[in-house]
Task: inverse folding
């Protein structure tokens, strides 16, 4: 069958006249309809586990803007919760989890196959979405990459420098590696279930990859990503995978080839021109627009959007932000970005 969905064409390596578009955190607090549905669900986690309402918030930005892809509404921290970690969200502050400080804390976790039962509402959300999405819209499933998820499981919260995870990695490398191995296995099973339920593309979010340097980057960002991708490709060779080692800098070079990713998403600490020169030769690239433009808008948003589209015009490209859209963004700026990409 000839592939019509623009996201899948770009991921297969095709250079399109207009890049397809979606946006990290496109379903989220900047949208009044999201805030209303979250209130209806009660709280954020109840929303994630309510398949009907999670599908509804996934569809909201598609209805409003006609993005070329939708991303399953869930969170990277549902996986550690399924593995037995306590998880709750503090309003205005963010996630809190039980911590991992000792072998006993690790032993108390569940085996990787716990993801099947506990996360079944998420697979149900995927099934609903495949029925309800417009035929041209691609459905992206996702998980956090092991290093990033481990930083939350070890510290019990988001940390500016991932200090507690670095400390455990350096003081008890065996225990740290056990956490990574459990997450690799759990993530493979979790993402397999998403693909079985109908996810057409997978994205791995390694939001804190940038704090790993040298051999640590290879061992804890590159290697786990490669293990997950090769296991998924062995089962589902036709499902494209996007890797996002945020903050990787020079280490973006060669990341696609080394891990088997079909596309590498990149943040705004490198330029689109740099990505065209050093990354795009290996496959599709995605990202780069600073999410602050979604707050400030205006001529700067337009010219920066045009610059990114022009810089990446000669190869496969999916337009996206360098990181998630923030709650203070103006929904009208999102429309301005889309109009600019589509008329560039
Ligand atoms: O109050 C609310 O409504 C919660 C805000 C929120 C949302 C909308 C959280 C809490 N998670 C999500 C959804 C989400 N998270 C999605 C699906 C929606 C979409 O993209 O449209 C995805 C893909 C994620 C991924 C995610 N969660 C990441 C990786 C991407 C990134 O932003 O770096 C991370 C690090 C998380 C953890 C998390 N969940 C929520 C917050 C506020 C955080 C970050 C915590 C921190 O600051 O460290």
Result:
């Amino acid at each position: 069958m000839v592939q019509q969905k623009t996201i899948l064409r770009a991921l297969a390596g095709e250079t399109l006249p207009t890049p397809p578009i979606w946006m990290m955190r496109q379903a989220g607090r900047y949208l009044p309809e999201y805030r209303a549905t979250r209130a209806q669900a009660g709280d954020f986690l109840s929303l994630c586990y309510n398949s009907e309402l999670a599908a509804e918030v996934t569809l909201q930005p598609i209805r409003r803007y006609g993005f070329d892809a939708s991303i399953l509404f869930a969170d990277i921290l549902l996986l550690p919760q399924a593995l037995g970690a306590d998880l709750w969200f503090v309003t205005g502050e963010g996630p809190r989890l039980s911590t991992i400080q000792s072998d006993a804390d690790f032993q108390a976790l569940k085996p990787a196959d716990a993801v099947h039962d506990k996360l079944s509402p998420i697979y149900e959300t995927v099934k609903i979405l495949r029925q309800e999405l417009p035929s041209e819209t691609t459905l992206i499933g996702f998980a956090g990459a092991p290093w990033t998820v481990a930083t939350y499981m070890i510290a019990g919260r988001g940390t500016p420098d991932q200090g507690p995870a670095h400390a455990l990695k350096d003081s008890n490398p065996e225990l740290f590696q056990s956490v990574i191995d459990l997450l690799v296995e759990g993530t493979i099973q979790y993402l397999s279930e998403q693909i079985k339920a109908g996810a057409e593309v997978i994205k791995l979010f390694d939001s804190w990859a940038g704090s790993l340097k040298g051999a640590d980057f290879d061992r804890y960002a590159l290697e786990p990503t490669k293990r997950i991708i090769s296991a998924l490709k062995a089962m589902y060779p036709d499902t494209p995978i996007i890797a996002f080692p945020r903050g990787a800098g020079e280490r973006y070079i060669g990341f696609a080839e080394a891990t088997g990713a079909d596309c590498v998403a990149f943040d705004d600490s490198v330029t689109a021109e740099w990505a065209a020169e050093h990354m795009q030769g290996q496959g599709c690239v995605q990202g780069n627009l600073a999410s602050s433009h979604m707050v400030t808008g205006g001529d700067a948003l337009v010219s920066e959007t045009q610059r990114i589209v022009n810089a990446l015009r000669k190869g496969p490209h999916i337009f996206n932000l360098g990181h998630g859209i923030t709650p203070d963004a103006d929904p009208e700026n999102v429309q301005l970005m889309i109009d600019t990409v589509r008329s560039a």
Summary: The first strand starts at residue 69 and ends at 71.
